[in-house]
Here is the input.
Amino acid sequence: MSLVLHWPLDTVGPERRVLDSSPARLHGEVKGDTPANVLDPRFGSCLEFNKNTPTLATPTPSYVLLERSPSLGFAAYTVEGWVKPLPRSGTDAVGLVTADNLHVLVNADGSIEHRFAPLSNDESSHSSAAGVLPVGAWRHVAVTYRDRVARIYLDGTLSAEYTTRADRAPTESSLVLATYRNRFFQARIAHFRIYNDELSEVEIKRDMAEDEAALEAYVRNRPLEFEFIDADEQPVLYVEHATAGQTMTLRLTNTSRHGIEALPTQGDHLTLRFRRGTLATGLRPTLSTPGWPMTADPDAGELRLRWPESTPLASGASLDLPIAGLRADGGQEAHLTRVELAYRKLKYTGESDELTGSQTRHLEILRHPGRDEVPLDLQIAGGDRVLSDGATPATLRLHLANALGAGGDLPLGGASFTVGFAVQNDGESQPWALTSAASAPQATLKVAAPGWTVGVGSLRDGRMRWTITPAQGTVPTLPPGGFVELVLENVLGLPVLGHATVTAEYENVPGHVNGTLTARVERTPLLFTARTALLTGLRVGAVRDAATWDHALATVSRDGYHMQLRRDTGSGGGSIVFLELFQDRTEGDELTFPNIRFHHTEKFWHRIEARKTGFFLKDGNEGQDVLVDLHAATAVLTGLQIGGVTIGEKELQALKRLAADG
Here is the structure.
């Protein structure tokens, strides 16, 4: 006879394995959710499977799988372990152990069913009496088989025996703990063993005594366990939670078999220690539980508590001590640290020897909001467009606004904002970029109001960035609906149509998680304000299909410092209208005379006016009707009218001859 497998089940090891302490090293693999590692007053530490997870309809129940192994191909066997069933619903049997021709099931009536042959053979199973495995109580369960005799033992005492007419065939098999036909056992389980032969009642009790002796030694050395958890029962301390700080619960659990109480002392009984720098400076944590005085030195990372005299903590009992006003230091990124509970001047009830020791637990430091949403909004005021020509400077006014409305002021003390946008490097195609990498350093950022410091702009990792922080000694606050105006100047839009985003990354806003706000900017060929309109190009013509323009195509574009109306066809086309001033049909006899005006401010202005009788050159003031001069080197005319006299070609030739005879 030899031990095939021993899973202590006191923890889940690396790579989600349940470790085998026997020489065979048949480690099991955890499937589904990781079973909870729980403190237990009898076993100190054990695994809890499938609490509130009865069926596959509930996400990812947990069980342990041992892949098919020759070590499990035995004819005789003993399977044993400690079991504490949890409350469950349903009437179907659930599995403690399942293999190809070995099953230990727990029925809804609290009986144990032992099956030891293929399921098609109804004679190859037997059960204990009902109620032998009550909910909430630890029981040692063992089943054995040898020479056609099967037995069930409860707490080392024979509970049921059965003799089958056919022997059990040894079959190499895989093995599963805590499930049967996708019905998952809700229980705490400890010290699961398999032997390749039948154990006697004495040998089973020997294993039980060995387990309890080891557990007694474990518990004697660790009588007081603790947890340090948040409102969600998680060991998480937030960097920023709320202005009043976060409430964490120090949960003390007596894992011994005796009550624990305080010895008289002038000092403290419990010290909760954090690594230096874990807690924010200047905290004033409080403990409101009556009779439990606490002194705090958060800068040194210590909270010291006095245990009230004559107040024992019973065996297996827990006590929650809520400590308010805690917050992790704001200069930290998310990480994992440790917290230690040291205890002294304690004793078991009825004894006088001092209990001293310490335990450590992991504590996760996270940046997490104290509220569900961050009440900040990034808006663009006065126009969200830049000219897409890569040359015309544009200005964007960004409003970092308090979106709380009537919800109250938003403090920004200690906060920082990094404003930036993506750029496009030469040879790249970044349609979401605002500018080219070459022109990005020309852009500048400033804050319109005093009280803020803007860092030097930097171009790295394909983004232009500036960091904005409150000026030294200031604690800015945004009232409801208030905003900080950020002025982004000298933006030379990428010469590609499309949209880009400006981002504002915020950190350390009191009471809120870090995050990013975005505002969309359009790169456009047409940019207009209340007084001006700018454009990079305008194409005019009829579209023949989705990709081709017809021969009438004209382009309005910039050529140097002037606007050009350009026809792009490669051949001549005769008389073609490039530009037309068009007055649509009007009612009545009055006419509209289209004008083009040439204007130099405070210097001169002239108009070309079209009438039914022809063109007129006039003064620029359309309220007057003053004609102006025309200057030309040569005038090519078919006639000339001066006043009421018309002179034609013949008259001019006669005048020319008279001048020659002259």
